[in-house]
């Protein structure tokens, strides 16, 4: 699909009205709309309406220019009489930058959007520099940092919930209660998921610091789980009725110990 560009300007049009072989002329001001089409390769073509009412495209004198942005170069072919504003619209498709945050520099000077290329001295093979407006760039950085901090905060909430489970398992192991190994495995995997979530969050400044702290916290909790799991494996299950039963990550009260049977023996005394 071709991307259509529209420019408007004021002009006067004379309408001739024929009435009984007499002509009267009237002058009125109208707004004429000119459509622009961006073809593959950055070619900007003007669309005009002919006498027959059919659309036809008039390119006019074309020039090839090179625009530098970041570490990339964009080769464009545009009408020599187009404006820097037209050029910004084309560059939006190439760079993703909105025209309002673009700054085009030619021969070391920033150019106004309404200024024409040929008037500014832009010719064939000319080179321009595209920069993002510093204020907009800083604002975008602040917004991105805010989004990152919010995402990290959500991870903290999930880790807090999982950490309560770690405390429950710790208490059970310290009391000598036998815990199913799957409890440690599942919990460790849930912590790993949170680590992967943190790794996918792009962060800078304060957000980077928060992410680093949360990563260390999760790693510490995983180490604790590994220690508890090893200690749990070494427990000697001398009470078959002692176990930790969980349902949907909720800890239920441990079963009561079965009452032991009292065994008595009679001893015979010899003189």
From TrEMBL:
InterPro entries: BAG_chaperone_regulator (IPR039773), BAG_dom_sf (IPR036533), BAG_domain (IPR003103), Ubiquitin-like_dom (IPR000626), Ubiquitin-like_domsf (IPR029071). One of its GO terms (molecular function) is adenyl-nucleotide exchange factor activity. SMART domains: BAG. Keywords: Chaperone. Transmembrane segments: none annotated. GO terms for cellular component: cytoplasm. This is BAG family molecular chaperone regulator 4-like isoform X1. It comes from Nicotiana tabacum. The gene is LOC107808772.
């Amino acid at each position: 699909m071709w991307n259509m560009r529209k420019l408007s300007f004021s002009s006067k049009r004379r309408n001739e009205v024929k009435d009984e072989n007499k002509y009267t002329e009237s002058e009125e001001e109208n707004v004429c709309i000119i459509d622009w089409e961006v073809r593959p390769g950055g070619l900007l073509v003007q669309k005009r309406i002919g006498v027959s009412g059919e659309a036809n495209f008039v390119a006019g004198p074309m020039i090839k220019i090179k625009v530098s942005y970041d570490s990339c170069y964009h080769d464009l072919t545009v009408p020599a009489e187009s404006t820097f504003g037209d050029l910004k619209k084309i560059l939006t498709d190439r760079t993703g930058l909105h025209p309002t945050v673009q700054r085009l520099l030619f021969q070391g000077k920033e150019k106004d959007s309404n200024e024409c290329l040929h008037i500014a001295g832009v010719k064939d093979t000319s080179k321009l520099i595209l920069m993002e407006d510093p204020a907009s760039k800083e604002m975008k950085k602040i917004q991105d940092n805010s989004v990152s901090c919010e995402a990290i905060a959500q991870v903290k909430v999930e880790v807090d919930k999982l950490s309560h489970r770690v405390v429950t398992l710790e208490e059970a192991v310290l009391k000598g209660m036998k815990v199913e190994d799957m409890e440690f495995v599942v919990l460790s995997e849930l912590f790993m998921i949170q680590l992967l979530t943190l790794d996918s969050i792009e962060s800078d400044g304060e957000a980077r610091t928060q992410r680093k702290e949360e990563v260390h916290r999760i790693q510490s909790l995983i180490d604790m789980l590994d220690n508890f799991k090893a200690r749990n494996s070494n427990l000697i299950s001398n009470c078959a009725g002692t176990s930790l039963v969980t349902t949907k990550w909720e800890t239920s009260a441990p079963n009561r110990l079965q009452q032991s049977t009292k065994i008595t023996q009679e001893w015979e005394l010899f003189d």
